[in-house]
Amino acid sequence: MEQKRTKSSDIKELRARKQALRREMAEIQTEIESSLTEVRRSFFGRVHYRYWIEKYPLQLLGSAVVAGFLVARKTGMRHTDDFSDAEDSSEKKAPSSLGLFSGLLADELKKLAAQRTVRYIMKRIEEAVDNRNEEEIHTDK
């Protein structure tokens, strides 16, 4: 009789340990999943362009302006080379379709960048004004 009790108590104890291990594994798995989700969010947040714009707005704006001037200067030179007059060279050059396309593409990209920059700056200004108005409302009370 006593041997049966020890076997059944051993089996119950093993089952209880098995359940405890399963619960612990589930908790560990949940912790790992939440940690991975947090790491993924942090990584993709830092890769996303908005993170960098919010962290370094003036530096990026300055870099965009400098890059815009450099691209404009380079594509502007290409346009004048493509459409040069007969007086400047012995034979008239035909505009290359690649140069024309890249110039048009560069112009459109510059317009798009300027529009997005203006929208972003306006959004930041509006947020600052709203925050200032809220602070004034709270200090008046």
TrEMBL record:
Coiled coil: 4-38
Keyword Coiled coil listed: yes
Alphabetical keyword list: Coiled coil
This protein's name: DUF3618 domain-containing protein
Source organism phylogeny: Bacteria, Pseudomonadati, Balneolota, Balneolia, Balneolales
